[in-house]
Description:
Shape: flat
Order of helices and strands: HHHEEEEH
Strand order of the largest sheet: 3-2-1-4
Low-confidence stretches: none
Mean pLDDT: 82
Radius of gyration: 29 Å
Strand content: 15-25%
Amino acid sequence: MTEVKVVVLGRKPPRPRRFKWLRTTRIKQAQPKPGTAFRLVKVAWWIVKPRRASWALASIVAIVVMFGTPHMLLTYQCLWRGTPGQRCTACSYIGVQGMRGYVGLDGNCPLIMLLPVDWAAVKKQFLTQ
């Protein structure tokens, strides 16, 4: 007699295929065009849906609105050179919003800083185009 060796690959049966509705072009043309309210609800639902991309985008937008955009120190001007804990009078940062000047609360210039968004400049840039 021959021996039969049975190997179990998985316990669950395969998932059934989902039926895809096929819409013809005639049916698509007969449907009314969605309005702006429907589109806004659709965008809001896309944001709220638990997907990694939408939550990542929402968290980035929240960080930018609450804390600002990241900028890196380009140049600085302090009273004395080489003295630790010195007070700086001018710090120039470059980042998403271009070159900006900012001095920290203690008169220091951190290497990377989250600067608040200049909403007036953003509004001006988008309205002029």
